[in-house]
Amino acid sequence: MTLASDIPTSVILYAFGLTLFAGLSTGIGAAVAFFAKKTNTRLLSTALGFSAGVMIYVSMVEIFQASKTSLVSELGESRGYVVAVASFFGGIIISAIIDKLVPSGQNPHEQVAISEISDVQHSVKRQKDLYRMGIISALAIAIHNFPEGLATFFSAIEDPALGISVAIAVAIHNIPEGIAVSIPVYYSTENRKKAFFLSFLSGLAEPVGAIIGFLFLLPFFNGTTFGITFGIVAGIMVFISFDELLPTAEKYGEHHLAIYGLIAGMAVMAISLLLFM
């Protein structure tokens, strides 16, 4: 296990870079909403399922196991395993609490398909309400993205190859979030720049999460804090996968496409981990 004092500056900068990439992919969703006439829902559904498969597999097989190994070496077999499990479910509870902070009916993962843009434009007469929906969605997405930033950052710190896999998975699922922000803002203001900026800005919560982790968690890293942090990260990623990615994947396409994507994501993640053993 690498201690904070032993981590090269280049690795820290690399981890920040991956987190920034993952967060700002919300801008891709905004661009898609503006320039595509309709969504390839089958591809998006499969991609979201793929992202969930990557995150679930890497959480349970790699990140949780790293947490358990570190805690067992520090606290002993029985106590270390208990703390690892408690940390994992603690991460799930943290994510669930964050999810509850999102106002009812304004959850950013209730996506709007691009093919419905014209319907939204013509059916919503109160532009202030539509604009408010976009703003609240941006804030809600920022809340959700914060723990994702922690997950990406610490995954890259521990294993640069693992960090790439996590960053790509997070980036894929940030694309429809960008759509959720940009559509209501654009059709209430008719200002592409403003809609794109707010969508882009909501993704900055992920590098902010990385900065918080760097300032307040990394300086205290040892075997125990590493194990607890990674257990929490694994729980956060599993919750995100089951609460956000898979439901959104099914909303955009067929059930089987989401599952095929899920299995493909797990398989690709398994192969990539074997290649870097």
Could you explain the architecture of this structure?
The chain is mostly helical and 277 residues long. The protein has one domain. The protein is 83% helix and 0% strand. It has 11 helices and no strands. The chain has helices at residues 9-24, 26-35, 41-75, 77-100, 117-123, 127-158, 160-189, 192-202, 205-217, 223-252, 255-275. Helix 1 (9-24) runs antiparallel to helix 9 and helix 6 (127-158) runs parallel beside helix 8 (192-202). It is globular.
Rounded to an integer, what's the Rg over CA atoms? 19 Å
Major sheet summary line: none
**Cα separation of the termini:** 16 Å
The number of distinct β-strands equals 0
Our count of domains comes out at 1
Concise summary:
This protein is mostly helical. It has helices at 9-24, 26-35, 41-75, 77-100, 117-123, 127-158, 160-189, 192-202, 205-217, 223-252, 255-275.
Give the topology, please.
Blueprint: H1 9-24, H2 26-35, H3 41-75, H4 77-100, H5 117-123, H6 127-158, H7 160-189, H8 192-202, H9 205-217, H10 223-252, H11 255-275
Helix pairs in contact: 1-6, 1-7, 1-9, 2-7, 2-8, 3-4, 3-7, 3-10, 3-11, 4-10, 6-7, 6-8, 6-9, 6-10, 7-8
Question: What structural keywords apply?
Answer:
globular, mainly alpha, 11 helices, 0% strand, 277 residues
